Amino acid sequence: MRTIVLGIGNPVLTDDAVGIKVARHFEGLVDTEILMTTDFKVLDKLLGYDRAIIVDGVRLGDAPGTVREFTPDDLFYTHTFSGTHNLSLPTTLKIGYELFGPEMPREIKIVTVEVADATSFGRECTPEVAAAVPEAVSRIKKHLFPGERSRQRKQLSRPISALKPKTLCR
């Protein structure tokens, strides 16, 4: 299954970089892309994949560092334009499904982290948001590698008699 992790944010705006910081954990494991906008460039990156996980910092009114998960159907679609090149992520995804249908990923998960400060210049996230990065990474791993923990448990719980002895000498 072709999978992409897409991190959205600005690397020099404190907590706005959280999507990028989380996505970087998956470089080399799956296709990973970084964007600084939620406009049509998102569609360019998603087209042709079977599964996509998008991670972004948001302001939903939760406590800073709160990690949430959504599907495109969970999001409220608004056609919010603040200029000719700025679309909300839900609007971009809706347009993508309407225009490109089968070329869009069949499965999209959006992982969000509530930001505290996304307007101050800085290369590090605030402590609350930085502390949420491992949880966001863990949630994404569960989607990317379902059953990995149960396979590990099965391997660890096998009786010793089920293990084949290695022959060291002939």
SSE layout and pairings?
Layout: E1 3-8, H1 18-23, E2 31-35, H2 41-46, E3 51-58, E4 67-70, H3 89-100, E5 107-114, H4 127-144, H5 148-157
Parallel strand pairs: 1-2, 1-3, 3-5
Antiparallel strand pairs: 4-5
Describe it for me?
With about 170 residues, the protein is of the alpha/beta class. The protein has five helices and five strands. A five-stranded mixed β-sheet has the order 2-1-3-5-4. Strand 1, helix 1 and strand 2 form a beta-alpha-beta unit. The C terminus is likely disordered.
Task: Please provide a brief summary of the model.
Helices cover 31% and strands 18% of the residues. The chain has 170 residues and is α/β, with parallel strands linked by helices.
Which characteristics define this entry?
single chain, 170 residues, alpha/beta, five-stranded mixed beta sheet, 5 helices, 5 strands, 31% helix, 18% strand, disordered C terminus
Q: How many DSSP H or I helices?
A: 5
First-to-last CA distance: 43 Å
Largest sheet: 5 strands, mixed
Write down the overall mean pLDDT: 83
Rg from alpha-carbon coordinates: 19 Å
**H and E order:** EHEHEEHEHH
